[in-house]
Amino acid sequence: MLLDYAGECRVKLDRVQPKRPNSCRLSVAANSLNFFNGSQRYTPEQVLEHINQSRLTRGKPLADLDQEAIGDEEVVEFLANHGQGVIFREIEGRKYLNWDLLVELISSNFIVVADHQLLYCDPTKRGPNTFSYIPPELLYRLMNDEQFSYQTFLDFQDFIIRLYGDIGNGHVDIVVDLKNIEGTDCIVFANLASYGNEYPVAIPWNLYCNYLAYDWGNGRGSFMRDISDLPNEEMLEQIKETGYLERGNMEYFYGCFEIYFPQERQTELDAILKKYN
Which among 24, 99, 104, 108 has most CB atoms closer than 10 A? Predict the structure, then answer.
């Protein structure tokens, strides 16, 4: 199943793609500002230049994107200094992983950014955006589970660890549409990755909600290298409900979105979110 999507999307995003790995947050910030300004004012690399300049003034080392990804705090600082009134708000948990809510947000010209696992291509090589690297029996379960299966979740993460060495494949991407494609409800991402990004990608909605809408880490570059590090089934249900759980030195997230918007539209956004809370 090839995931590239060449059709029309509700969000008319003239994408500016990153040239380096670990640039997804930089790409989201650049593309969001360009969207609200109506012109190509920023590239991800220009956003990084501003962040590195701020690091220099504080005596911190410059960001090395081969070793790290830029965190939320530095993106917030960049927006405060250069966003011209564009800010973002975070929401998380299963109540916000709602098809109708996301459609209403993007139809209202808010930029919705999904935090998820970047596993729609083989993480070991720069291949096409496809799930064909996943063993057929496991892929069948992932694609056909209407309800979440904890065993399938573990089997999928165990396969990724054996394939790649860890399961730290967190990523953020702009949602450009939600639509039925050839009989399958899909969430369509801008695919702001440093390779394989010619087209947006369409991910089946049930697969996304059940197995890809997670992120985890501890903010210090540590990755999980054994499925014993994953939450048990009860904890996973708690994460889905609240969107967040801290255990030991790890943080776990589910159904997380950032909504970029001009600050003067705060009341409008609050009213939409209240309908689904």
Answer: 24
Helix 24-37 and helix 72-82, axial crossing angle in degrees, nearest 10: 30
> Which pLDDT tens digit goes with each residue over 223-244?
678 888 899 999 999 999 999 9
Q: How confident is the model at residue 222 (pLDDT cuts 50, 70, 90)?
A: low
Describe the crossing of helices 44-57 and 24-37 by its angle, rounded to 10 degrees: 110
Cα separation, 182 vs 186, whole angstroms = 10
Cα(91)–Cα(145) distance, integer angstroms: 26
What is residue 83's three-state secondary structure?
coil
DSSP designation for 38: T
Cross-strand partners of 201: 4, 189
Question: Once rounded to an integer, what is the mean pLDDT over residues 7-29?
Answer: 95
37: which residues sit within 8 A by CB, 6+ positions away? 84
Burial of 32 (C-beta count, 10 Å sphere; 0-12/13-18/19+): buried
pLDDT above 90: residue 248: no
Tell me the pTM.
0.95
Report the candidate in 122, 117, 146, 123 with the shortest Cα–Cα distance to residue 132.
122
Token representation of residue 21: 């790995």
Closest to 1 (Cα-Cα) out of 198, 181, 255, 211: 181
Dist. CA 56–CA 43, nearest whole Å: 20
Please report how many Cα atoms fall inside a 13 Å half-sphere around the Cα of residue 6, on the Cβ side: 2
User: What is the per-residue DSSP string for 130-178?
Assistant: BSTTS-HHHHHHHHH-SS--HHHHHHHHHHHHHHHS----EEEEEEEEE
